[in-house]
Every structure is written in structure tokens, then in C-alpha cells.
Design a protein that fits this description.
Structural class: mainly alpha
Shape: globular
Pfam families: FA_hydroxylase
Number of domains: 2
Number of strands: 0
Order of helices and strands: HHHHHHHHHHHH
Helix content: 55-70%
Number of helices: 12
Radius of gyration: 23 Å
Keywords: Membrane, Transmembrane, Transmembrane helix
Protein name: Fatty acid hydroxylase domain-containing protein
Largest sheet: none
InterPro entries: Fatty_acid_hydroxylase, Sterol_Desaturase_Related
GO molecular function, one term: oxidoreductase activity
Length: 306
């Protein structure tokens, strides 16, 4: 770990100590740490294998957040009182569809994402990732996470748009469009190639950042992953509430943005923000189509007037 005090703590531990014994020792000699930092330090000291400690923590965090965040949307789908907020009211996933989707997503997590999660620690630490204590200040974490959202969104836009090219769509991306009315669990329902390709934007952005800056903590990475999972699942929820983030931040994509993409199978390629689709004229929906028609008609009139 990062501090000399923790090294002194290690000397007093044995391989038979439980996690809570280690936590007690860490708390006793490191009063300057907050409780989350003590839990974190005790975990790495108790595991005595940093790659294994990060791998287990990363995998279980991913599963708990992904399925835990999806459950509220499953409940909302079962309650008629929320139907007025559903974007495609006539299309509601059945329990069978949701459980089949959950099973296939879990299989993908175990076979495709788990190896990537396991390789993350040695690769990221090679480039300078810090995983010691104390954690970085909140302002630094927030700044870096904003950068990661921007980087991932750009990667997602261009690769997602490429996946809608004929052969790539048929052989790779079509699986994700199984559901024309998406729901939370379907956020990572995709082919292994797509999972790896788009996942590069999520994991690769922080790695690229730490390559150049040598300034990134694993705790920041975890907060980023949690927020990215929330964004992906909520974008696939199929619901648009008055308090949804897209009504607070006009440039935020949200469920309405992505739902139209699933409904029309084209346009709205970005993940988090609207600016790529706006600037490159790939917005989907009636308003965007109307604007394009008017622009085309205006150009035709101007040409005739010459």
C-alpha cells in the first residue's frame, strides 16, 4: 500500500487473521483515514495479492451495480402507474424476456468481461494507476470523470455509427437491436465483439489518461464505472421522467435520445451527450427529420432563385 504507516500495520498481521481483524488493526494505527479508506486498505492488506484484490472487487462491484440498478426498472415496468412516462407505451418487456436477457448478459460478463477485468490491474498499474490510501480529493475525481465521459462519448459515437454499416450491423450489432423498445437489463445485451469494442471506450479512456498524466486513482475509476453503468442502464430504461437529467442538462442524451435509436434503428449514436449527433446531422426522430426536410427545401428554393 501507499503509506509507511500501513507497512507497519502489515508487520503485525498473520495469514490467519480475518478481514475484520485486519480492519481493526488498520483503524487503530491509521486514525487519519476515513472509514471508506480504512475498509479499502484493510481489503488489500488482507488479500495480500493486489491483482486478485482488484479483480474480485471490480467484478462483484460491476455485477451488483448492473443488476442492482436494473431491478428498479423491472419493478417500474410491472407497475401501470408509471406507464404515462414510458416512451413506447405499446411495447412492454415480459418477465420471460427480462430473465432470458439477464441470463445472457450474465454469461457475457463471465466469459467476455471477466478476463478484461482481471487484466485491468496489471495493465493500469504499469502505466501509473494508484490504488493506495488516502483517496484523491473529490474535485479531482469529479474533473477526471467529466473528462472520461467526454472521451467515452466520442469513442462510442464513432464506433456505434460504424456498427450500423451493413455487414457490421448484420454480423455484430444486430443482437443489441433485438429489442426495439429497450429496457434496463438490455444495456449490455450485445455480441462479445461489441462488448469488447465499446468497452474499450469505458476502460481505455482512464488508461489513456493515466498514460499521459500519471495521475489516476482506482477509486476514481470505480466511481466512473458506476456512473457509466447508471447512464447506460437508464438510457435503455424506456422511461422519460420530468426529473430526468436530460431535462436539467439540455446536452445530456438520456432515455428519450436512445429510445428513438432503438425504435428507428438509425441515428442518435452517442452514449451520453447530444453534440456529436447534432453537429454531424445524425439526430433521429420527427423533429430532426422535419428540420432536415426544411433545410433541403430551402436549399432547393435558393438554387431555383439563382
Amino acid at each position: 500500500m501507499a503509506t509507511a504507516v500501513l507497512n507497519a500495520t502489515v508487520a503485525g498481521l498473520s495469514s490467519t487473521d480475518t478481514y475484520f481483524t485486519v480492519l481493526e488493526e488498520v483503524s487503530k494505527y491509521n486514525v487519519q483515514l476515513n472509514y471508506a479508506e480504512k475498509l479499502w486498505a484493510a481489503w488489500y492488506l488482507w488479500m495480500q495479492n493486489d491483482t486478485l484484490a482488484t479483480g474480485l472487487m471490480s467484478f462483484f462491484m460491476h455485477e451488483i451495480i448492473y443488476f442492482g440498478r436494473s431491478i428498479p426498472w423491472m419493478i417500474i415496468d410491472a407497475l401501470p402507474m408509471f406507464n404515462k412516462y414510458k416512451l413506447q407505451k405499446e411495447k412492454r418487456p415480459t418477465w420471460k424476456e427480462q430473465f432470458e436477457c439477464a441470463g445472457l448478459v450474465l454469461l457475457s460478463h463471465l466469459t467476455v468481461e471477466l478476463p478484461q477485468i482481471w487484466l485491468f490491474h496489471p495493465i493500469a498499474t504499469y502505466f501509473g494507476l494508484d490504488y493506495g490510501v488516502p483517496f484523491p480529493p473529490l474535485w479531482k475525481m469529479a474533473f477526471q470523470i467529466c473528462i472520461f465521459f467526454i472521451m467515452e462519448d466520442a469513442w462510442h459515437y464513432w464506433n456505434h455509427r460504424a456498427l450500423h454499416y451493413g455487414p457490421l450491423y448484420k454480423s455484430i450489432h444486430k443482437i443489441h437491436h433485438t429489442y426495439s423498445a429497450p429496457f434496463g437489463l438490455a444495456a449490455e445485451y450485445a455480441s462479445p465483439i461489441e462488448v469488447m469494442l465499446l468497452g474499450i471506450g469505458t476502460v481505455g479512456s482512464p488508461i489513456l489518461w493515466v498514460c499521459f498524466t500519471k495521475d489516476l486513482h482506482l477509486a476514481t475509476m470505480y466511481v466512473w464505472i458506476v456512473l457509466r453503468l447508471f447512464q447506460a442502464i437508464d438510457a435503455h430504461s424506456g422511461y422519460d421522467f420530468p426529473f430526468s437529467l436530460c431535462h436539467i442538462l439540455p446536452f445530456w442524451a438520456g432515455a428519450e435520445h436512445h429510445d428513438v435509436h432503438h425504435e428507428r434503428f438509425i441515428g442518435n449514436y452517442a452514449s451520453s451527450f447530444r453534440w456529436w449527433d447534432y453537429c454531424l446531422d445524425t439526430e433521429a426522430g420527427e423533429e430532426a427529420a422535419k428540420a432536415r426536410r426544411e433545410k433541403k427545401l430551402a436549399a432547393m428554393r435558393a438554387k431555383k432563385a439563382q
